[in-house]
């Protein structure tokens, strides 16, 4: 699947973004955070991601090694994306694919990452 432009948002619409990405490499994870939130994530370089609105509505939550900014909308509580670094230290965005418009979630084949035991 080629990279495509997608629009994403939280539930109330305060947080909105555009992202250019492929949906080939989505993951789910069973760690203490993802297991509870039920997110389907895809990691993209920060330059592929444009936050259109809502920076002021984002609350950051960090835990464990505190290397990922788990962000949620402080109005509706949805987690539209997070921020982190890849192995080389580049800024990376973890997009919650469930927050993208025009994505058929039943067509995704996410990799099940065993974050609980990583
Ligand atoms: Zn919201």
From TrEMBL:
Domain CENP-V/GFA, by residue range, is 6-114
Gene3D superfamilies in alphabetical order = 2.170.150.70
Enumerate the GO terms in the molecular function aspect.
carbon-sulfur lyase activity; metal ion binding
Q: Which UniProt keywords apply?
A: Metal-binding, Zinc
Question: Quick check: keyword Signal in the entry?
Answer: no
Instruction: Spell out where the chain crosses the membrane.
Output: none
State the family named in the UniProt similarity comment for this chain.
Answer: Belongs to the Gfa family.
Name under which the protein is recorded: GFA family protein
Phylogenetic classification of the source organism: Bacteria, Candidatus Magasanikiibacteriota
